[in-house]
Amino acid sequence: MSDALPVLSWSEMAALAQGGDQEVYSVLLEEVYRIIEKFLASRISDPGQREDICQEILLSVHLSLPTFHPKNSFHAWLFTIARRRLIDFLRLKKKRSGEAAVEGSFFDDFRAPEEHAGFAEFIEVMSQLSEQKRQALSLVHLQGLSTSEAAARLEISETNLRVTLHRAVKTVKDALTS
Q: Whole-prediction pTM value?
């Protein structure tokens, strides 16, 4: 994101993109691409196929963006799209190879993070963190930015970001294990 843009949540970025802000939309797609690559990395071993499905997901995000409601979780919306495109891709792959159609239970592990046990507790702990700690965790651990990229966005030194991240992770870990 350019230095002139403030740190925005994905939902805020999507709302601005819906309003026609091309710069924010471009940044949103770059961040979505990084997250989708990570999501697919453990599920599709072939880099070419992984890139194909990633492009399919980005196209679906682009075409579906007008249906996104900014008050909802962009993360849940995105992973619903990603999971569905992945299922479609794997079913097509099975049909082409002559194997039986993939059973729905195979995809149980492809749930959005919001559907996993403990997610509500995690969100509660995150909401109790300071804004800077929450943003640092989100940028580095959820959106996949490097520490230097996240530090630049938050307008703090990389060392300060690392300390903030360490404290935030410790706080979350302590709260979730107590």
A: 0.52
In angstroms, the CA 173 to CA 71 distance is 28
Half-sphere exposure of 89 (CA within 13 A, CB side): 20
Write down the pLDDT at residue 46.
85
For the chain, where do the domains classified as CATH 1.10.1740.10 start and end?
A: 1-112
Instruction: Please say whether the beta carbons of 128 and 97 come within 8 A.
Output: no
**Are 60 and 77 a contacting pair, CB within 8 Å?**
no
| Domain covering 117-178, topology | Arc Repressor Mutant, subunit A (1.10.10)
CB proximity list for 95: less than 8 A, separation 6 or greater: 101
pLDDT tens per residue across span 86-119: 888 888 877 776 654 444 444 445 555 555 556 6
